[in-house]
Design goal:
heterodimer; A: alpha+beta; Naphthalene 1,2-dioxygenase Alpha Subunit, Chain A, domain 1; 2 domains; 9-stranded antiparallel β-sheet; 4-stranded antiparallel β-sheet; 13 helices; 21 strands; about 25% helix; B: about 200 residues; alpha+beta; 7 strands; about 35% strand
């Protein structure tokens, strides 16, 4: 048994029996977790199936009978609202001969008719009927031939998750200590109204899906991976956004929090002081000067708040295994193959603010996908290339481990540590190991 | 109370001019770019083609500072995500570059530190089906064209296709680009490393 020298929130006595121990050690993980197709296929069943996986945002399903096509791991699914507005998710796979029954990305439909042989299913999955039923025997039981269902679908304040596991904890319990951070992110919107529209940056990279998760909670890379952005930002003198990742960020006020269940968050907010500070430090985006003047003159009492919510949330919240809240974006990790991944950056608007605020949010949310993320993804791809060296077997995640004075644990078991601690990786791999070993929570 | 009057005239540093009327212009440009035009006179058509060919060569040869000079102070370099453009007030784009952000983009490409452009993209584009519409009363020239952009980078060859909408504005030194809208055929779908210039 590998005993993590981390301050552990878990029972040290709990033994792990399973095939994966050798691949996930306290300070390192094996290269094959990023390169081996069998590992990937098993992940698609266990990690993307046996725990809560983010599926969609409720604003993408605005009315009764709305639907949205997406995937749970590699399984094509359709997330639906029934006529009462309740949420469901069904496999996009005809019970007859497996063709997908829904071929549109979004829309409104009470039922789906398979284009291949005409079997028709309600948007809750039940089989309505198959054409010419006289061709089936007496044992043809419609009630057993519905679309397969994602057995548990639940929304937390608009964020829809699904799992095939009956034994997984409730969604709020699974989100656990990530919940207050998610609440902060949602509550930046008046009344918590977050809106996802269709335009999203859908980025692909030639690398394993976990590289995106390794990066989401990584406070170590910005001053190197994002040198081009930081250099560009200093074009007009004082460098603004993200410059605090530069010199020895571990001595600064930023922290990373290991939240349990594989979740983590980087809190950049301590770099900012008081209302209006986030806006003041925002990189200048198209229309900034006119917008600020307009907001300050029309809403003098409320200007700082409105300006701050026009810029990013200043937390990077990673919710295992596929949801990353970065800035104002809802980023979703979609594995396509062992060495190919889609990252969808869903831009968000919010309700209860002047429309100009949302326009500025759009301009803000174009910046990092253009000048930051591509450099990260180039590095993900170069990691994947480097992993071809079969003689060098390990990826290290040991930064911060056994370093005196970095980690403290609060009363809820949340570990707080210096921002470049690789605890976010060790934390999610603990959860990955549990799922891959098929252990109950 | 006296207030210091800020000089916002340098649009490579300031973006005071991107206001509601700036967005309204985009709506108007889109209406024109999506309407049927008469066939332009040969001389006009040839000038339109020539402008696009010159612009294309500057990009393909990596002469981004020279390319930047082609744009007007109130320009927009726009690569929408929603096909046709959607509503930029409420939707994000691959690129929605006013003069300042476009200057940033060129600066960024030239830092030599953008790992997504190490090695640099090599591109070579083909432009065809060029149509030109002049609106002398507004001092504008509209050009519509189809493109195929071939890109080679880091051992991978990619092909992008789509159509350009150019709106040129008459300036002291000839035509300048007021709007360049690059509409990718698959703009709303998955793309790898979309850091090349369209």
């Amino acid at each position: 048994m590998v005993v993590s020298p981390e301050i552990s929130r878990y029972n040290a006595e709990a033994t792990r029996e399973g095939a994966w121990e050798a691949y996930v050690q306290a300070d390192r993980v094996h290269r094959t977790l990023y390169t081996d197709e069998q590992v990937f296929n098993e992940e698609m069943v266990k990690v993307f199936g046996h725990t809560w996986v983010y599926l969609a945002h409720e604003s993408q399903l605005p009315e009764p009978n709305s639907f949205l096509s997406t995937k749970l791991g590699l399984r094509p699914i359709v997330v639906t609202r029934d006529r009462h507005g309740d949420l469901h998710a069904v496999f996009n796979r005809c019970a007859h001969r497996a063709a997908t029954v829904c071929r549109e990305e979004v829309g409104v439909a009470k039922s789906f008719q398979c284009p291949y042989h005409g079997w028709t299913f309600k948007n809750t999955g039940e089989l309505v009927g198959a054409p010419w039923p006289q061709g089936y025997g007496a044992d043809f039981d419609k009630s057993k031939l519905g679309l397969g269902k994602v057995t548990r679908v639940q929304s937390y304040r608009g964020f829809i998750f699904g799992t095939l596991s009956e034994s997984a904890p409730s969604l709020p319990d699974y989100l656990g200590e990530a919940k207050p951070w998610l609440d902060y992110w949602i509550d930046r919107a008046p009344n918590g109204e977050v809106i996802v529209r269709s335009a999203a940056h859908r980025m692909g990279y030639r690398g394993n899906w976990k590289l995106a998760f390794d990066n989401g909670g990584d406070g170590y890379h910005p001053s190197f991976s994002h040198r081009s952005l930081l250099e560009m930002a200093s074009r007009m003198g004082d460098s603004k956004d993200m410059s605090y990742f530069g010199k020895t960020p571990d001595d600064g006020p930023m922290k990373v929090y290991s939240l349990g269940n594989g979740h983590s968050v980087i809190d950049q907010r301590p770099n900012f002081e008081g209302p209006g500070s986030i806006w003041a430090n925002q990189r200048p985006q198209p229309g900034r000067e006119k917008f600020e003047e307009l907001i300050r003159s029309k809403y003098p009492e409320d200007a700082d708040r409105l300006l701050d919510v026009s810029a990013g949330a200043q937390i990077n919240l990673s919710i295992f295994p596929n949801l990353l809240l970065i800035g104002n974006q809802i980023q979703v990790i979609e594995p396509l193959g062992v060495e190919r991944t889609q990252l969808t950056w869903n831009a968000t608007s919010i309700g209860g603010v002047p429309e100009e605020v949302n326009t500025m949010r759009m301009r803000t949310q174009e910046d990092f996908p253009a000048f930051g993320e591509p450099d990260d993804q180039a590095n993900f791809e170069e990691v994947q290339r480097g992993l071809a060296v079969s003689e060098e077997e390990w990826i290290l995640m040991n930064r911060g481990l056994n370093v005196d004075g970095w980690q403290t644990m609060d009363e809820n078991g949340v570990i707080v540590t210096a921002v470049t601690d690789e605890i976010h990786m060790r934390g999610y791999y603990e959860e990955w190991l549990r799922l891959m070993n098929g252990e109950a929570k | 109370m006296s207030q210091k009057v800020q000089d916002y005239s340098d649009t490579s540093s300031w973006s005071y001019h991107v206001d509601e009327s700036f967005y309204a212009d985009l709506d108007n440009f889109r209406d024109v770019l999506n309407s049927d035009w008469p066939v332009a006179a040969a001389e006009i058509a040839r000038r339109g083609e020539g402008f696009l060919a010159q612009e294309a060569r500057l990009i393909d040869e990596g002469r981004f500072n020279d390319w930047l000079e082609l744009f007007s102070a109130d320009c927009l370099y726009w690569v929408p995500i929603t096909p046709g453009g959607g509503n930029p007030r409420l939707e994000v784009s691959h690129a929605f570059d006013d003069c300042r952000r476009l200057t940033d983009r060129v600066y960024w490409l030239r830092t030599g530190l953008a790992f997504s452009q190490i090695p640099q993209s090599r591109t070579r584009r083909v432009i065809s089906n060029v149509e030109v519409l002049d609106e002398p009363s507004k001092g504008l020239r509209f050009i519509r064209s189809n493109f195929i952009v071939n890109e080679f980078r880091a051992g991978v060859h990619k092909t992008y296709s789509g159509w350009y909408g150019h709106v040129l504005t008459a300036g002291d030194e000839g035509w300048r680009i007021r709007l360049k809208q690059a509409n990718l055929l698959d703009s709303e779908h998955i793309h790898e490393n979309l850091t090349l210039v369209f």
